[in-house]
Amino acid sequence: MSLKIKQDQARFRAIVRGRIRQGLKKYIQHGELLGKKGKDFVTIPIPAIDIPHFRFGERQQGGVGQGEGEPGDPLSPQQDAEGGTGKAGQGEGQHTLEVDVTLDELADILGEELELPRIEPRGNDRIVATRVKYTGISPSGPESLRHFKRTYKQALRRQIATGTYNWFRPVVVPVREDRRYRTWKQVSIPDTNAVILYMMDVSGSMGDEQKDVVRTESFWIDAWLRRHYPGLEVRYIVHDAVAREVDRETFFHTRESGGTMISSAYKLCREIIEADYSAGGWNVYPFHFSDGDNWSTDDTRICVELLREGILPVVNLFCYGQVDSPYGSGQFIKDLREQVGSAENVALSEIADRDAIYGSIKTFLGKGR
Amino acid sequence: MATRALPAHLHDMRRQVEAHARAYGLDFWDVIFEVLGFDEMNMVAAYGGFPNRYPHWRFGMEYERLAKGYEYGLSKIYEMVVNNDPSYAYLLESNMDVDQKLVMAHVFGHVDFFKNNFMFRHTNRKMMDQMANHATRVRRYQDRHGVEVVEEFVDRCLSLENLVDYQSPYVKRRTAPAAAPEDERRVATGFRAEREYMAGYINPPELLAAEQRRLDDEAARERKLPERPERDVVLFLLEHAPLKPWEHDVLSIIREEAYYFAPQGQTKIMNEGWATYWHSRIMTEKALRPEEIVDYADHHSGTLATQPGHLNPYKLGVELWRDIEERWDRGRFGKEYDECDSLEERRHWDKKLGQGREKLFEVRRHYNDVTFIDEFLSPEFCQQQRLFGFGFSEKHQRWEIVTREFRKVKDKLLHQLTNFGQPLIVVEDGNFENRGELLLLHRHDGVDLKADYARDTLRNLHSLWHRPVNLATKIEGHGALMHFDGKEHTDRRVER
Predict the structure, then answer these.
(1) Which residue of chain A is at minimal alpha-carbon distance from B60?
(2) pLDDT 10s digit of each residue in chain B, 496 long?
(3) Which chain A residues are closer than 8 Å to B55 by Cβ?
(4) Cβ contact (<8 Å) for A81 and B399?
(5) Residue B86: is the preceding peptide bond cis (ω within 30°)?
(6) Mutate which: B3, B4, B56, B61, vs A, most A CBs within 10 A
(7) Which has the least CB within 10 A, A303, B111, B366, B453?
C-alpha cells in the first residue's frame, strides 16, 4: 500500500536535491555530520527546510532548562536552543538525531545520506576462490545427495494421486521417479583485499585543527571502505621533509616542524605498494592530506611524475584533500588539478573547515571506485 | 488508510482503563482508538494527527524525520490523539500490551483536557472533517493553477502564519465603531455670500455638493487603516490585500488551522503534565499487573527524562500538578502561608485540608501555560526541580547556565511562553506615507529579531501585499525601519 504522504515526501526530497523550487534552497539545513564520536555515538544529519518567520534572534534569548550545574557551566556541547515549547503537531522540531549504531550501520547510513555509489572492486574477472553452494533440487543426481524428505513427499504425493495409498497401513515406498537430489552451483568469490594508505603532512603549518579535520574525515573513509572490504588493511605515512611509516596513534598526534617535501611521501607510498601490494587483486586507496604548501616547484614536479608513473596505474583511487590553514599557500592542489586532474582515478578536494568534510567525503567516495 | 478495528483484548483493556478514568472523575468525549502500523503512524503524526491534509512538502519532511528516527531505532511515536468530538487516538501496532494500556490512560487524560480547558472552547470539534475539506480545496486549486504556484503561495502564507492574534478567540478587541459625533464632520460652506439672495448664485448646490464630497474624502483618508493597531496581521491581509479568490481561500485555510493548533501549543506543559499525571495514577493504583511494573517504569521514566537545555513539558507539567495537589492538600497557600517566615514551619506545614483533587480539576479548566506557571511556579518548586536559565556566552562562544535565581528563571520561562515565545508584531498602518505601503510594528521587549529571517519574511509579505512593506523594530537598541520594495531591502535607522 502506498501512503498519501509519500507524495509529499517525494516532493520534499526533490526540493532538498535542488530539482525543484530552487528558491527554498537557502533554507535547507543539513545538520552536522558528526556531533560526538567515540563510543559509537554519532549524530545523523537529516536535512530540514526552515520557512522564515519573524522570530527572535536565538543568542539574545536563551531559555530555561532543568538539571544539575552551576551558573557559568556550559550546557552540553551541541546545543540548539529551542525551548521546550514547540508547537504541537507542527513540524518544527530538532533537526538532528543522535543514535547508537555499529560502524557497519553507520557506513550504510553515510552511504545513503551522501548517495554514495557501491564500490566496484577492481579485477572482478580475476576470480580467486570458488565455493560450492547447494541451491536447488533436481530429479537426478548421485545417491549420496539424495534429499530424503523431498523424495518421501514426492512418493506420498504420487501414491495419493494414484489412489494406492493405504490409510491403515501407511507405508510409502519411493520408486525411481520419486527420487530427488540436491544440486549445487559454483559460486565464485571475487577477491576483495584492500588497503588504505593515509599520508599526512605534519610539517609546522599543520595545526591541531587541521589534523582534527583529517582525523574526522579518515574515520568516515575508514568506515565506508571497511563496509566494502572486510579485510581492510590500513597503513599510515607521515611526512615533512622526509617520510616515514608510523602507527595510527602517531599518525594523528605527531607534530613535526620543518619543511615539506611531498615527494618523499609519494616515494614511500610507491615503495610500500610495490613491496606489499603489487600482487594482483589488491584494491589500493592512497589518501593524502596536506595544507597545500610544498617546498619547491621542482618537488611538485617530482610528485606529479611519481603519481603518473608509479601510483596512478596501480591504485583504484588516489585522493588528495587539502585542508585550509592560515599558513599554507594552497598551491599544491592547483598544480595537481592541472597535471593529473583529468585522470579518472584521481579525486581532489579542498576542505575549508569541519563543515566541508561532508562535501569532501562525497567527492572522494562518490566515484564508486 | 487501512485501519483495523480494535482487537478483542485491546477492547477489553480499553473498557477497564476507561472505567478507571471515569471513576477518578475525568470527563471526556467518546474516544475512537485505532491501531496503526508504524508507517501509517508516522504519516498521521506528520500530518499533525489527521489522516488527511492538503499536499505540502513540509509534511513529507516531518514524515522523513519520523521514519528515519524509527528506522534507526531512535524514537517511536507511542501515542497520538486528536482534539475532535469524538476524539481519535492511535495505538502503535507493535507496542506491548502494557504500553497500550499506558497510552490509553494517557489519552483519556488528554481528551478530558481538550473537553474542559477553556482554551479549547472555541476550537472546531469537527476538525477531522474540516481538515479533509481543506485538503480537497487546496488540491482543487493545485489542479487548476498548478502544483508549483499553489505550493509557493502556501509557503509564503506559512511564513506569516504566526502573525495571528492568539488571544483573539477569548477577548473582544474590536467594538463596533461608535458613530462619529455629528459636529466633527466638516460641512461645505462655499464662498462667503454677503447677501442671502446671492447665495444660490455664488454657491450653486452642485458646487457645494462637490466640495462636501472632497471634504468627506479627505476625512476618510485621514482616518487610519487600521484604526487601531491590528494584531491579527493575517486577518488584515485577508481583508485588505489584493488577493485572488483562491489565494484568499488558501490564506484563510492556513489561518484557521493555525488557530486550531494554537491552544495545544499554549497548554503544552499543562496538557502533557495532566495526561502524565493521570496515566501514572491510573496505572500504578489500578490498571497495572505486577509483572508489568518493570516495563511500565522503564517507559514512564523515558517520558520524563530531562536533558540540559531542553525543558521536558511532560516532566515540568506533571511535577507542577503534583506540587499543586500537595499544596492544596496541606493548605500551603494563602496569606498566612505566604507570610510565614520560618523555614522549618513551612516545611512541616500541614493543615490537612485535602482540597488537592478539587483544585486540580479547577486549574485544568481555567488556566493555560502562562497563567499556570505564573501562578503555581514557586521558589521551592524551582529549587527542587533544579530549574535554570541559560544563555549564550559571547566570551566563551557557548551556551551556558546563566542563573538559578527564581525570579529570573521564571521571567525567562514566561517570556518563552508568552505569545508562543514569538515576537509581538502588529499592523500599524495599511497606507504608510500615503503610498499604500504596509507598516508593521514590532513591539520590542528586549530581544531583537533574527534579521535575515525578518528580511525573508518581509519579502513573502510583499508578495501578498503587492506594495512596499516596512517593519519598524529595534536593532541593538536603536529604532530601525526595515523596508522591502519588491526588489531590494533597505534598513533605515529611525528614532522613535
Answers:
(1) A9
(2) 445 568 889 999 999 999 999 999 999 999 999 999 888 899 999 999 898 899 999 999 889 888 877 776 666 777 889 999 999 999 988 888 999 999 999 999 999 999 999 999 989 999 999 999 999 999 999 999 999 999 999 999 999 999 998 888 887 766 555 555 555 667 777 777 777 787 778 888 888 888 888 887 777 666 677 878 888 999 999 999 999 999 999 999 999 999 999 999 899 999 999 999 999 999 999 999 999 999 999 889 888 887 766 788 999 999 999 999 999 998 888 888 888 888 788 888 888 888 899 999 999 999 999 999 999 999 889 988 888 888 888 777 777 888 888 999 998 889 888 888 788 999 988 888 888 899 999 988 888 888 888 999 999 999 999 999 999 998 888 889 999 998 888 888 886 5
(3) 7-8, 11
(4) yes
(5) yes
(6) B61
(7) B366
Q: Which residues of B touch A97 (CB under 8 A)?
A: 65, 68-69, 72, 74-75
Give ipTM to 2 decimals: 0.80
Helix, strand or coil, per DSSP, at residue B442? strand
Is A5 in contact with B151 (Cβ distance < 8 A)?
no
Of B180, B10, B28, B188, nearest to B98 by C-alpha is B10
Instruction: Closest CB to A60: pick one of B420, B425, B448.
Output: B448
Q: Do B482 and B491 meet the contact criterion of CB atoms below 8 Å apart?
A: yes
Interchain CB distance below 8 Å, B448 and A67: no
CA within 13 Å, CB half, A201: 30
Reported pTM:
0.69
- Helical axes B97-116 vs B268-282, angle rounded to 10°: 130
Q: Coil, strand, or helix at residue B443? A: coil
Phi, psi angles (nearest 5°) of residue B305: -65, 145
Nine-digit cell string for B204 = 450653486
- What lies within 8 Å, CB to CB, of B109 at 6+ separation is B21, B26, B274, B275, B276, B277, B278, B279
Which of these, B484, B463, B424, lies nearest to B241 by C-alpha position? B463
| Alpha helices, DSSP H, located in B223-352 | 233-240, 245-266, 268-282, 293-304, 313-330, 334-338, 343-347
CB pairs under 8 A between A and B: 270
Candidates A12, A55, A99; nearest CB to B72: A99
CA distance A359 to A351: 8
Q: What's the DSSP call for residue B243?
A: -
Instruction: With beta carbons less than 8 A apart as the criterion, state whether B139 and B55 touch.
Output: yes
DSSP 8-state code for residue A314: G
> What residues of chain B lie within 8 A of the CB of A102, using their CB?
none
Residue whose grid cell is 512538502: B57
Contact B63 A87 (CB under 8 A): no
Q: Which chain A residues are closer than 8 Å to B72 by Cβ?
A: 44, 97, 99, 101, 105, 109
Nearest C-alpha neighbor of B418 from the set B474, B473, B370, B479: B370
Residue carrying the nine cell digits 603518473: A308
**A-chain residues within 8 Å CB-CB of B391?**
59, 61-62
Whether A211 contacts A325, CB under 8 Å: no
Report d(CA A192, CA A345) in Å as an integer: 18
With a CB cutoff of 8 Å and minimum separation 6, the contacts of A311 are A266, A269, A270, A273, A286, A318
CB atoms A66 and B388 under 8 Å: yes
Beta strands in chain A (DSSP E): 28-29, 41-45, 48-49, 63-66, 96-100, 127-138, 181-190, 193-201, 232-239, 243-246, 282-290, 318-323, 346-351
The answer to whether residues B42 and B70 touch, using CB atoms and an 8 Å cutoff, is yes
- Asked if B86 and B32 count as a contact pair (C-beta separation under 8 A), the reply is yes
Q: Which candidate in A5, A26, A27, A104 is best for mutational testing of the B interface (most B CBs within 10 A)?
A: A5
Nearest to A351, CA basis, from A203, A152, A215: A215
Query: Across the interface, do B390 and A62 touch by the CB < 8 Å criterion?
Result: yes
DSSP A25: G
